[in-house]
Amino acid sequence: MDQTLQVRQAAADLVAAFASNDTARYFACFSEDATFLFHTLPQPLLSRRAYEELWAQWQADGFAVLACESGNAQVSLQGDVAIFMHDVATHIRSAGAEHQLSERETIVFRRHGEHWLACHEHLSVVSPG
């Protein structure tokens, strides 16, 4: 399979796991040393473990992903690294209220043998207009 298609499939698997609120499958898409930069947090998360711990707290507080759709995807291959950019529309429940989010995301994938794992995720708001 073409490397660009492999990266697109890895991203689709990650989004599908997130959309189905499948914690184990979602975090299996990331390398252990993955980092995360989310506009909703005051500082970056510097490991998958740090994000997993925060995710568990969110879920304990009633957080759930109800749906997630990816659009306008672009892939840039850089050797054993690939940059995946897309628009993401997410439907979540948090503290009993449902929210629709429109964001833009960059996911950096790194090749691990025959697989591509996400090693960095950057989520930002979509600017109006």
TrEMBL record:
Annotated SnoaL-like domain residues: 7-126
Domain of life: Bacteria
Pfam families assigned to the protein according to its UniProt record, in alphabetical order: SnoaL_3
InterPro entries per the UniProt record, alphabetical: NTF2-like_dom_sf (IPR032710), SnoaL-like (IPR037401)
Signal sequence region: none
Protein name as annotated: Nuclear transport factor 2 family protein
Source species: Pseudomonas oryzicola
